[in-house]
Write a structure and sequence with these properties.
- The complex is a heterodimer of chains A (about 280) and B (about 290).
- Chain A contains 14 helices and one strand.
- By secondary structure, chain A is mainly α.
- Chain A folds into two domains: about 50 residues, no CATH class; about 210 residues, MetI-like (MetI-like fold), CATH 1.10.3720.10.
- Chain A is globular, with a radius of gyration of 24 Å.
- The two termini of chain A are about 40 Å apart.
- The model of chain A has no long low-confidence stretch (mean pLDDT about 90).
- Chain B has one domain: MetI-like fold.
- In chain B, helix 5 crosses helix 8, helix 6 packs across helix 8 and helix 8 runs antiparallel to helix 11.
- Chain B is flat.
- Classes of the chains: A mainly alpha (about 280), B mainly alpha (about 290).
- At the A-B interface, helix 1, helix 4, strand 1, helix 5 and helix 6 of A face strand 1, helix 1, helix 4, helix 5 and helix 6 of B.
- Strand 1 of chain A pairs parallel with strand 1 of chain B, so a sheet runs across the interface.
Chain lengths: ~280, ~290
């Protein structure tokens, strides 16, 4: 290596870490603000003359008088678990059906699925609200779970179909020759072999349902039923912003998706990339 | 692949549950929103909702060009695209290329990707926090250089720009991750061959990397456009479209019309506007899926 190339390399390394530093600075900021009393960080968390770590912001956020976060956490879990399992099950069946069977309107269904990927939630908001009202499902978890299930099905179907297309069909055919029925093939041969796809899709669907704000906003309004994402804006206050409280609340809302990302990193990124790039 | 002909029981089991839920909770409401947008207060078919919305200051405010913000939600979304799309796309590509040969590059990638993982509601809080007077990290940096420090999201002339730049911090991880995955698929031998022919790194970048990454660029641009057109949570938490509508966007305006003013007709028109623009943005995606379905 020439001298010039070494210098280029050193420069690039410093530059890249500098970029990384810029990117993590706001996260460090919110962390530092959350673990210290507010009067200590009122002129910026980067002053470390006094440093008294405390959990009080987290405790105050969890037991907030008007929007306790702990209840929101429980509520969000009650929504997110079924709203991940249900669409995953239904859409895996659909993805398999589309990739293995020929039926009338098959192409229409595929195009409907893809169009839905581009659809903004605003496009269904008003009729969904009216429909849920007439069914008595406004302000119920049942209504929101149903909606998240339906909203998740298109992308998971699309994702699963892309996965099934890459799977060799020969094993399934061998099982068929051995006399297995189509359903046996699906449950005994196909399902045990698609764990990576299921892991990717569940990680993303769970994260999205947990992070959803808009659908919850139009359907859930009782103070005790509000989800975790709905509670954070309520903590902001109109005239005075308690950044310690808000930071602690933000950390607790994002900790769940971040943990999922860290634990299932491989599947998470595959889900994101595999879904967008075939 | 040869597809098997589906019998009734197959359809019932594999297709029907999904098709039914999509039809009831996605397709029907979509069609209903379209019809709602054409129905007036008296219940008759009319174009008055469109007339009212399209001439409203909320959507396009031409006086903005003389006096500054607000320009109206539609223009704000377009400004978001004009700044955020090139910025995040190039930044992601640039970083993906650089981080390939850096020690600990994966750690830096994970840090940048963090913005994609956090809920957008938290993203909005973070953006607001960065630009806050006294406590915001942006003002810390500006203060070091002796520049003006203020709560940038609180002033009409800077609120939208603060949100746009803040959302660049959130979204850059998307193109970075996609481009990184794309770079892995380019065979090393292409670069080795080019090197033997005496090509410079810059030439290799423009003649090998860029053309081979084209399919990924299409995906990145499509998904980023969709994200920018649907933007809602960040604005809702950070500024609520304010001050005085200076950072308003279409999705938020739809919510305001529909669920604050309870004017479903006007809300439906805005929803149709957003959907038309997302469909235009998604044309490449729809086309490739349609071709494949043959």
């Amino acid at each position: 290596m020439t001298k010039k190339r070494i210098w280029v390399k050193v420069f690039l390394n410093i530059f890249a870490w500098f970029i990384g530093l810029i990117w993590i600075l706001p996260v460090i900021g919110i962390l530092m603000t959350a673990i210290r009393p507010f009067d200590e960080v009122i002129n910026g968390w980067w002053h470390f003359k006094e440093f008294t770590p405390t959990f009080s912001n987290f405790i105050n956020a969890l037991n907030h008088p008007t929007a306790p976060l702990i209840v929101g956490m429980k509520n969000s879990l009650i929504i997110a678990l079924p709203a991940t399992i249900l669409p995953l099950f239904i859409a895996t069946l659909a993805g398999y059906g589309i990739s293995r069977y020929h039926f009338p309107l098959r192409k229409g269904l595929i195009i409907a699925v893809v169009l839905t990927l581009a659809l903004p939630q605003q496009m269904i908001a008003v009729p969904i609200f009216q429909m849920m009202s007439s069914l008595g499902l406004v302000d119920t978890y049942m209504g929101l779970i149903l909606l998240h299930t339906a909203w998740g099905i298109p992308w998971i179907t699309f994702f699963m179909r892309n996965y099934f297309k890459t799977m060799p069909i020969s094993i399934e055919e061998a099982a068929r020759i051995d006399g297995a029925s189509d359903f046996q093939i699906f449950y005994r041969v196909v399902l045990p072999n698609i764990f990576p796809a299921i892991a990717s899709a569940s990680a993303l669907q769970f994260t999205w349902v947990w992070s959803d704000f808009f659908l919850a906003l139009i359907l859930i309004y009782s103070p005790d039923k509000l989800l975790i994402t709905q509670r954070v804006p309520l903590m902001r206050g109109v005239y005075h912003v308690d950044w310690g409280l808000l930071s602690a609340a933000s950390i607790m809302v994002m900790i769940v998706p971040i943990l999922i990302y860290l634990l299932l990193q491989r599947y998470y990124v595959k889900g994101m990339v595999g879904w967008t790039i075939k | 692949m040869v597809l098997r002909k589906a019998r009734f029981k197959h359809l019932m089991m594999f297709i029907l549950p999904a098709a039914l839920l999509i039809a009831v909770f996605v397709l029907y409401p979509t069609i209903r929103t379209i019809t709602l947008s054409f129905v007036g207060e008296d219940g008759k078919l009319t174009l008055s909702n469109y007339k009212e919305v399209l001439t409203s200051k909320d959507i396009v405010d031409l006086r903005g060009f003389e006096r500054g913000f607000p320009f109206g939600a539609l223009i704000h979304n377009l400004m978001w695209i004009a700044i955020h799309l090139p910025l995040t796309t190039f930044l992601g590509l640039f970083l993906a290329v650089i981080l390939r040969n850096i020690k600990g590059g994966t750690i830096i990638k994970s840090i940048i990707f963090l913005g994609m993982v956090m809920p957008m509601i938290v993203g909005g809080i973070m953006v607001r926090f960065m630009f806050e007077e006294n406590v915001g990290v942006v003002n810390m940096v500006l203060g070091v250089f002796g520049l003006t420090t203020q709560t940038w999201t609180a002033y009409p002339e800077s609120a939208l720009l603060a949100l746009i730049f803040g959302s660049t911090w959130l979204w850059a991880g998307f193109s970075l991750i996609l481009y990184s995955a794309g770079l892995e698929t380019i065979p090393k031998s292409y670069y080795e061959a080019a090197q033997i022919d005496g090509a410079s790194p810059v030439r290799m970048f423009f003649n090998i990397t860029i053309p081979l990454l084209k399919p990924i660029t299409v995906v990145v641009i499509t998904m980023t456009l969709l994200w920018e057109l649907k933007i809602f949570d960040i604005v809702y938490v950070a500024t609520m479209g304010g001050p005085g509508g200076a950072s308003n966007v279409l999705a938020l305006q739809m919510y305001m019309y529909g669920f604050r003013e309870w004017d479903f007709g006007k809300a439906a028109v805005v929803a149709v506007l957003i959907t038309l623009s997302t469909l235009v943005a998604a044309v490449p995606m729809i086309k490739s899926a349609g071709d494949e379905a043959e």
